[in-house]
Specification:
The complex is a heteropentamer, with one copy of chain A (about 325 residues), two copies of chain B (about 350 residues), one copy of chain C (about 400 residues) and one copy of chain D (about 300 residues). Chain A is mainly alpha-helical. Chain A has 15 helices and no strands. Chain A has a domain of about 200 residues: MetI-like (MetI-like fold, Orthogonal Bundle). In chain A, about 65% of the residues lie in helices and about 0% in strands. Chain D is mostly helical and about 300 residues long. Chain D folds into two domains: about 50 residues, no CATH class; about 210 residues, MetI-like fold, CATH 1.10.3720. Chain D is flat and about 75 Å long. The chains are: A mainly alpha (about 325), B alpha+beta (about 350), C alpha/beta (about 400), D mainly alpha (about 300). Bound molecules: adenosine-5'-triphosphate (ATP) (2 copies) and magnesium ion (2 copies). One adenosine-5'-triphosphate binds next to strand 2 and helix 1 of chain E.
């Protein structure tokens, strides 16, 4: 290109040194590392080490205290025992059931509330505070109060019967097959406000012109919310979903306060299993084996995601 | 009354205490292309939304196709609308974007297909039908958005700054496409923009708005050459009209520094009596230099301050009667900063405004 | 020096009892009792273990009689009380002897038993049985026979709370009532699987399953004292619960024999286990604290303190020579039984690890909640747990 | 309203018959439905609070009647006084009072420190990404799924080795660690959504890592900080587990006393005192929610919603 | 080397595997106003960020004021930068926005005050000093952003589409202000835009970029009148250049439909031998009608298809040799759709490109 040549009159200069040399170490990178030192320590020092530690422990017969003596290593005994334990199997099933049900119910209810809150209602502040406040209550308290309300002799059932409907039956916690629904109700009560807030923020972030377009197309409001707006709120849904997942995997306080895993072992959860075994049951090895199993789905999920991202990046050429 | 495609009667709209539109009247003929032009916040979109039924009017009536639609739902008004942000449904393919409204309305399948096919053909988007909006360029998106109005087979199209999000090149291409579309479909179009080139090139008539009031409603030529007031004069034209402050007395205009400019050739619309504070407006392209100066009623010697070459033409900045003036010359003419030369203009091609009322005299 | 004591005695009666210790200890001189109460045995024990691991152990910590602290002793984290015990001759006055054996690990004594609680009691509402026109039962078979009449009278025959430990505890009582001392030891101590698979256990399970049919629907998740309250209010006829339930009746102003009855066993031949609370003393760096710990240990078995403490707590003392004149009728029955070593047994927790106990609890909880589990199946799983126990 | 002028002219309005002005807003079915739904939902959400308040105002005999939804026949504030002032939590009978200050201390310091650190993390991860930073972040998010109790033993040992086990700094560090995953996520998303030009402008202006952080980013992060404060205050205030293990005796938070009041397994259960204690304990996070609920939604909109 | 204010040597930049800039060289003289012009995504901002030190280059060197600054921190490069989004610190007042960098550098208080006062005076923003950015209009914000570069007292100003967020009117006003600023300060300015009017009016030299490669680097006049290739020719000019496809043989250009256009007057830069596929470009304003047609080497009779009045001129769409052509006429000339008239042009003012290489011949 002729014009370029003219731009290049000083070409004699350093043209030979086509390489600009090594990138020098930047003080700002150091600062960044220093600034994230707590993060590094937490991520590596706490989470990684702790998880490895737990993993190793799961191959020992440690009871109260972690024991790493050569005589303590028992191979995969803890795992075989774990998967032969009825209570663990029930716990795992419960986690899936409870998790799916409560996440679906929570997200549905949260979205529904957000949609209703989005109707330019009066006293929005009040409603929002009412829906949000349960999140401020610890799960221990949530469990306690709901246990009361669902108690057939004190709560809703007794009250309705007191009104004359003597056949009224509503006592989910009493029955092994329904107790888990009681947990779900309490869980939703506790957490749906936050989901609602996230969804509401997501709704308000949707371009107003989409709404207008839908109105002109004559699309009924509910269809717009369901088919147009909802798919546009991926960020909000993802945030709410992650929060929910974290809560579900860790669910412990609520179960202990509400049902103690009962009736029978109908509402046992993995987290309860793990915690009981590393504390009162004095079988740290088994507890850690269970904990490792709990992390497995998360590892797989993250692994798949990382792999997908790596593939995508490779395809894009990063 | 029926000959009007859209009629607006005494329309008012408030947001709480803020009066955005007040007692607005507007009649639009069948097949007319009306552009609403005005600065940001003047109420253009608000007016369009009222017509579309997206905003509840505070007072007044709206007729579309002779029918009073003041309280109708948007979908029943026989209108289609195209938005600045395209407002495509992101998770649907182009085909579903086009057909969604029809399907919701329960239209027959083959009729839907026919309409979508027709719109796609008109807009040349057949190859895109199975893509999602994210896979489209800005221009393609806007075309789909127009298609969504097209399939509705309506009489009135409403456009709210449909081209503002596009880059200059695409904007001018799509502008022509919209113009062609109008020539082909011949339906009424109401088009909001704040880009005057769009307004001038597209409109049959332009409504210049300011603070919710229509200042002038005329064809582009009249708007450009005979602005009814100072506001319209300054708003339309880029580079904008030069204004010289002074006093008008009969057929003489005396600038503030005493320079006298004869305006005898000017066609007054209202007779002026006595000395009046006035503003003389001259468009930059009506200032001449070289041989032609001699033919002008007014000419003077000036010094060039800034030269802006714009490719096809060149813009020069200077001072007449101590007041800043720009003028446009062909790009062949070579001008230099500091150069002195003689320029002139004919007040007959300019505009004179009463300074107080700001109206054209 | 200050000695911090972790315990889970947080209710009114317990608080009075623990205050006895604290007062007496403070009165000894320059040392001071520093109180750390954490409700819930599980929470308190966890805190003790975790703080011990963290190098900030309390000066003394409450535990249950069980094998839970074996590992602490093994790791050398506990103060060796043997010299003190030898000097004061604990072996001579602490009875039943089994209770001190618990504290022994590899020939050394690491803890102080402070009281005895037994599970093997049934609490009956006298008015309830009167209303139904049946006699107070002497054993469980009697009770099950009488249950239909109670039901007819609109009374819940069997009150229980659905928490796992209540169910597990009640099942232990049922089991012991059928097995007797011999059978009990054969199963838990000797791991005799024939006995575990034998007819007594089977019958115990049958009783257990029929008890389920005699409860009310509110039993799930009910706390034990809410359950006791049903008996107090004569809505329910019988509850199987440890001797601590007596406090509830006392607080409600009920009189033994008139308003309620306590049935040891519940069997004609009652056996009592010797559960209860112990204190252990994690090793400290400061010799002054260690001296104070020893003083505290000594104080806890002091006869006057034992009298005051157990009267306040409503439990039985760990030695004979204390003044229990304040004891009520039920307590006196208990004291009487304890005098005969043949009727005193060691709880399963002495023989089994906490882990196995937990497995048993899980089994009983499941068996309780799931009527589809057959008696045979339950018994088979029971045998399996015993077989695999360490 | 008819007029006779039919010619097209600007100015004079020719109003015709038929609808004009605002569409009459009849109280439509859907409007009623919306409010009905919201009010019902609100009742559902308020029901537990109602039970708690009502119970806390009853005397024990009335509670034993078991009408948990009923307004007390005789209101008594005794339980509240007792819960706050005289309820026994072990040997000490000082109610919740003594733990309150500890809770405040832990919550305030813990919230501030954990938020500063999370904010710093989010900032560094958004603007100063060094090699491996994303992996670190992934690990951190992974940590959010680990049940607390699993990592307690290694943490205890670590704290012991640091020589701070059972001290105030220890509990603060623990709360910082466990608050970090979610908070960092929040701040990272927030900063990632900021225009990068702002950061570039500051760099051209010569501001370094810390100057940009303190002078530009922190003042901008107010909305998301409110969200973080709300989450963290709730989390720390309601914590019981870490408090008993890591805080040390002098720093025991209020929840330990609440637990002692509520979870006592023997003796009469004074439900009215329990409920009063529960409400009292929840008062601080509740107040935070009611005061800042509006900003909560806005803050979430600013940071958490953008995927 | 020292006479260059900014020199870029063999600069490459990749994001991962994506090569955004490749072996780019550019020398900018002291006091020169360079505009980087190109479509979205062509790497303009990337280049600017490399110069500013906001991106680490993958290869090559950057000199500013004769000093190799390839690895310097942005603040040590002697540059100031103005962003499209203004990037004002929202929580600081205007005064603090201006002084932030100076305070960070630990400059003395009175010196800071002096500089802020000077910048405020130059930009006429003294009354705004105590406001926060939210309280400013778009134009005011942009002025503050410029001020922030101004106070740094640097030799090189970098602008990244500083006017894109403003409306047309303000844009043209601020354009003039920037031009004045440059005339007054006389420092080097590198200005990124995709608005060709800005480029043409402001630049001493324009660098037209495409896919990270500089296509042409010349003064606006050359760029406009002698584009080096088809890309530049089509990119510059609005309405854009008309292109006629055909074959070039000696001095005859034969359009695809056989129409012959004599191009003997055209000044070839490269001799063409034999028949070559070529493209003949003619700017709309170089098409004439009326009397002048007679003087043109080529003329023909056409039918008007679309008329776009643009105020000062009118744009007409028609066909020459079966290919779409637009031409611009004075707005006084009245054209109608369907009207037939004679138009002509002089190929000497046009451009001819080799169709294969796309380069000018
Ligand atoms: N929902 C609303 N509530 C209150 N005021 C509003 C609302 N919508 C618009 N306005 C105000 O009404 C006036 C007109 O707004 P409108 O959107 O019609 O302007 P516009 O002419 O379309 O401007 P733009 O060119 O920026 O789109 C503005 O002053 C605006 O602030
Ligand atoms: N951080 C990044 N990571 C990967 N690719 C990038 C990044 N930043 C820019 N790019 C890519 O580099 C190319 C050049 O981008 P750049 O921002 O320089 O374009 P531009 O010419 O300034 O466009 P615009 O006019 O839209 O500002 C684009 O294709 C863009 O997608
Ligand atoms: Mg608008
Ligand atoms: Mg850019």
């Amino acid at each position: 290109m002729a014009q370029l040549a003219t731009a290049n009159e000083g070409g004699a200069v350093v043209k030979t040194a086509s390489s600009s040399g090594r990138k020098p170490f930047r003080i700002t990178t150091l600062m960044s590392v220093i600034g994230t030192l707590p993060l590094i320590l937490t991520a590596v020092g706490v989470f990684v080490i702790c998880i490895i530690y737990s993993f190793v422990l799961s191959f020992t017969n440690s009871r109260i205290f972690p024991a790493f003596g050569p005589e303590n290593f028992v191979g995969t005994d803890q795992y075989s025992r774990l998967w032969a334990t009825g209570r663990w199997l029930v716990s795992v099933n419960n986690l899936w059931f409870f998790g799916l049900l409560s996440i679906v119910a929570n997200m549905t209810a949260g979205y529904l509330l957000a949609v209703f809150m989005d109707q330019r209602i009066k006293a929005e502040d009040w409603f929002r505070s009412i829906f949000l406040y349960p999140f401020a209550m610890s799960l221990v308290i949530t469990g306690l109060v709901w246990r009361w309300i669902l108690d057939p002799n004190y709560g809703i059932q007794a009250t309705v019967r007191g009104l004359g409907f003597t056949d009224f039956t509503f006592a989910p916690l009493v029955n092994a097959s329904t107790a888990i629904y009681g947990l779900v109700v309490a869980g939703i009560w506790n957490g749906v406000g936050v989901t609602m807030a996230i969804m509401l923020a997501g709704l308000r972030g949707v371009d107003a012109e989409i709404w207008k377009a839908a109105k002109i197309d004559g699309i009924p409001t509910w269809r717009t919310y369901l088919f147009i707006v909802l798919p546009m709120m991926r960020g909000a849904i993802l945030t709410a979903f992650i929060l929910q997942c974290v809560g579900v995997v860790r669910v412990f306080d609520l179960v202990v306060a509400m049902t103690q895993g009962g009736p029978g072992i109908a509402t046992q959860m993995p987290a309860v299993f793990v915690i009981q075994h590393i504390t009162d049951r004095s079988n740290v090895g088994l507890g850690m084996a269970a904990a490792t199993m709990m992390l497995l789905p998360v590892v797989i999920l993250l692994g798949v995601q990382a792999f997908a991202q790596w593939r995508a990046n490779k395809a894009k050429g990063y | 009354m029926t000959q009007h495609s859209v009629s607006i009667r005494d329309l008012s709209l408030n947001f709480g205490n803020v009066k955005v539109l007040e007692h607005l009247d507007l009649d639009i003929a069948q097949g007319e292309f009306i552009v609403l032009l005005g600065p940001s916040g003047c109420g253009k979109s608000t007016l369009l939304n009222c017509i579309a039924g997206l905003l509840d009017v505070s007072d007044g009536q709206i007729f579309i196709g002779g029918k009073n639609v003041t309280w109708e739902e948007p979908k029943d008004r026989g209108i289609g609308m195209v938005f600045q942000s395209y407002a495509l449904y992101p998770q649907m393919t182009v085909e579903r974007n086009l057909s969604f409204g029809l399907r919701v309305a329960g239209m027959k399948k083959d009729e839907i297909e026919r309409r979508v096919a027709r719109a796609a053909e008109i807009l040349q988007i057949q190859p895109l039908l199975n893509r999602k909006p994210v896979e489209l360029s800005g221009g393609q998106r806007q075309r789909v958005a127009i298609g969504r109005a097209l399939v509705r087979d309506v009489d009135v199209f409403l456009f709210d700054e449909p081209l503002s999000n596009l880059d200059a090149k695409l904007r001018s291409d799509l502008r022509v496409e919209i113009k062609r579309l109008h020539q082909r479909l011949k339906n009424t179009m109401i088009y909001v923009t704040h880009d005057q080139i769009e307004a001038l090139t597209l409109a049959d008539r332009i409504a210049i708005m300011k603070n919710g009031v229509i200042q002038q409603l005329s064809d582009p030529h009249t708007i450009y050459n005979k602005p009814v007031n100072l506001y319209v004069a300054g708003f339309i034209g880029s580079p904008s009209m030069n204004f010289l402050q002074g006093t008008l007395d009969g057929t003489t205009f005396t600038a503030e520094d005493g320079t006298v400019i004869p305006v005898g050739t000017y066609q007054f619309t209202t007779p002026v009596t006595g000395a009046t504070k006035a503003v003389l407006g001259v468009r930059p392209e009506h200032v001449v230099l070289g041989d032609e100066v001699a033919r002008m009623p007014y000419s003077t010697e000036v010094e060039i301050e800034i030269v802006e070459p714009m490719g096809s033409d060149t813009l020069a900045w200077t001072k007449i009667a101590g007041q800043a003036v720009t003028f446009r010359v062909d790009s062949d003419v070579h001008l230099e900063v500091g150069q002195k030369l003689r320029i002139g203009f004919d007040p007959a091609r300019g505009s004179i405004f009463n300074k107080e009322t700001t109206n054209r005299v | 020096a200050d000695v911090e004591v972790i315990h889970w005695w947080t209710s009114g009666g317990e608080q009075a009892a623990v205050s006895v210790f604290a007062r007496e200890f403070d009165a000894l001189g320059e040392d001071k009792w520093v109180d750390t109460a954490i409700a819930g045995g599980e929470n308190a024990r966890s805190a003790t273990l975790q703080r011990t691991l963290g190098g900030d152990p309390p000066g003394a910590a409450q535990f249950n009689i069980s094998r839970q602290f074996e590992e602490l002793a093994e790791a050398g984290l506990l103060l060796d009380l043997t010299p003190l015990a030898t000097e004061e001759g604990w072996k001579d006055f602490i009875r039943p002897a089994a209770i001190l054996n618990v504290c022994e690990f590899e020939g050394k004594i690491y803890c102080v038993p402070v009281n005895i609680h037994s599970w093997q009691w049934a609490w009956a509402s006298v008015p309830a049985f009167e209303k139904a026109g049946v006699e107070l039962p002497k054993n469980l078979d009697d009770f099950i026979a009488a249950a239909p009449k109670l039901q007819e009278a609109g009374i819940i025959p069997f009150a229980i709370g659905g928490e796992a430990w209540q169910i597990g505890g009640a099942m232990g009582v049922v089991m012991l009532s059928q097995l007797g001392k011999e059978g009990h030891e054969a199963i838990y101590k000797d791991r005799n699987l024939d006995v575990a698979g034998g007819p007594e256990v089977k019958h115990a399970i049958e009783i257990f399953k029929s008890l389920k049919g005699l409860t009310d629907e509110g039993s799930a998740n009910r706390t034990w004292n809410d359950t006791t309250n049903l008996v107090i209010q004569d809505q329910a006829a019988l509850q199987i619960m440890g001797d601590w339930a007596r406090g509830e009746f006392a607080v409600a102003g009920e009189k033994p024999g008139v308003d309620y009855a306590c049935i040891a066993g519940p069997a004609e031949q009652p056996y009592l286990d010797t559960g209860g609370d112990i204190f252990l003393f994690p090793k400290q760096d400061d010799p002054a604290v260690e001296a104070a710990q020893l003083k505290m240990a000594s104080m806890m078995v002091n006869p006057q303190v034992q009298a005051l403490f157990n009267n306040a707590k409503g439990s039985l003392p760990v030695r004979d020579d204390v003044d229990m004149s304040l004891a009520d009728d039920c307590m006196k029955v208990g004291l009487e039984i304890l005098k005969d070593p043949d009727h005193v047994i060691q709880g399963a927790g002495i023989y089994l690890t906490q882990d196995s106990i937990g497995q048993l609890d899980d089994l009983w909880a499941e068996a309780w909640a799931n009527p589809d589990l057959s008696v045979e199946e339950i018994q088979q799983r029971f045998v399996d747990i015993i077989a695999s126990a360490e | 309203m008819t007029t006779d002028t039919m010619t097209v002219s600007s100015g004079a309005s020719r109003i015709e018959a038929g609808p004009r002005g605002t569409k009459p807003k009849s109280l439509t079915f859907s409007r009623v439905g919306i409010y009905a739904f919201l009010v019902l939902a609100a009742l559902f959400f308020l029901m537990p609070l109602w039970v708690m308040v009502v119970t806390s105002l009853k005397a024990m005999p009335e509670i034993q009647l078991r009408h948990i939804f009923q307004w007390p026949q005789q209101i008594t504030f005794e339980p509240w006084l007792k819960a706050w002032d005289t309820a026994c939590t072990g040997r000490d009978c000082n109610g919740l009072k003594p733990g309150f200050l500890n809770s405040v201390k832990i919550t305030v310091v813990g919230t501030i420190i954990s938020i500063i650190i999370a904010c710093l993390n989010g900032y560094a991860l958004s603007f100063w990404r060094y090699k491996g930073a994303n992996v670190l972040f992934g690990l951190l998010v992974f940590g959010a799924f680990v049940p607390y109790q699993v990592v307690i033993y290694p943490l205890i040992i670590g704290m012991r080795e640091l020589g701070i086990f059972g001290t105030f700094p220890c509990i603060i560090i623990i709360h910082t660690i466990f608050g970090m995953p979610i908070l960092t996520l929040l701040f990272r998303n927030f900063f990632a959504a900021l225009p990068p030009e702002l950061f570039k402008a500051a760099r051209v202006d010569g501001a370094g890592f810390w100057q940009i952080f303190f002078q530009i980013m922190i003042p901008m992060a107010v909305p998301i900080t409110i969200v973080a404060v709300i989450l963290q205050v709730t989390g720390i205030w309601n914590d019981f587990l870490f408090g008993t293990v890591f805080a040390g005796r002098e720093n025991m938070p209020m929840t330990v006393q609440l637990n002692n009041i509520v979870n006592t397994t023997t003796g009469v259960r004074e439900y009215n005192v329990h409920m009063a204690a529960t409400i009292l304990t929840a008062a601080v996070p509740l107040a935070v929610y009611f005061i800042s609920g509006k900003w909560f939604v806005r803050g979430i909109a600013a940071g958490a919603v953008k995927g």
